[in-house]
Design brief:
The chain has helices at residues 23-43, 78-93, 95-98, 130-138, 158-161, 168-177; strands spanning 60-69, 102-111, 117-126, 146-155. The N and C termini lie far apart (77 Å). The chain is an alpha+beta fold. 17% of the residues are buried. It folds into two domains: 12-44; 60-177, Alpha-Beta Plaits, CATH 3.30.70.3250.
Length: 178
């Protein structure tokens, strides 16, 4: 069915508000509108929009923290790390700091260039909480077993955090911790 061809139905009458028959007037105005629409469609130009997307910032930040122990011990467990982080964040930000979600990815021993061995942990926090966590860790005053904590490195890419190796250091630390 083309736009210009109309079928008439004698049993169907269009009436206006006054009750007058509007069937022929409605058909004429409809055919006039359809011819205008055809002209508009022909005049319309297609617009092409080229969109360029870039990768957005990561949702997570990975942080490598090292701890200075009170005694000669170099082993540490997840509970000690979590309690020290909770103490540091609640001291720095109160209840808001205690509510920050932290994932402990690996716990192990970090060997420095001087040969000293310190317990360390890889943690993951939400990107919007990263600066608060780094500041809270830096302001940690110490506990009975851990004298101090420091942020060694942090990055949005875990592979960049485990710099100097192909990433196997992360799995070796996990194996040492168990």
């Amino acid at each position: 069915m083309t736009l210009g061809a109309w079928k008439t139905f004698p049993e169907l009458n269009l009436l206006n508000l006054n009750g007058e028959d509007m069937t022929t007037e409605a058909q004429e105005s409809a055919s006039a509108n359809s011819s205008k629409q055809i002209k508009r469609k022909r005049k319309a130009k297609s617009i092409s929009i080229d969109a360029v997307t870039t990768s957005s910032q990561s949702d997570w930040v990975y942080i490598l923290i090292t701890m200075l122990m009170s005694g000669p011990r170099t082993d540490i467990d997840e509970l000690t790390v979590r309690s020290c982080l909770l103490q540091a964040l609640s001291t720095y930000l109160g209840d808001h700091g205690a509510a920050i979600a932290i994932d402990i990815l690996a716990i192990g021993v970090d060997v420095s260039a001087a040969g000293s061995r310190r317990p360390s942990a890889y943690i993951r926090v939400a990107n919007e909480d990263a600066e608060a966590v780094v500041a809270g860790i830096s302001s940690f005053a110490g506990s009975s077993s851990v004298q101090a904590m420091s942020v060694k490195r942090w990055s949005v890419w875990l592979a960049a955090l485990v710099a100097g190796s192909d990433g196997q250091e992360l799995f070796q630390m996990t194996a040492e911790a168990t």
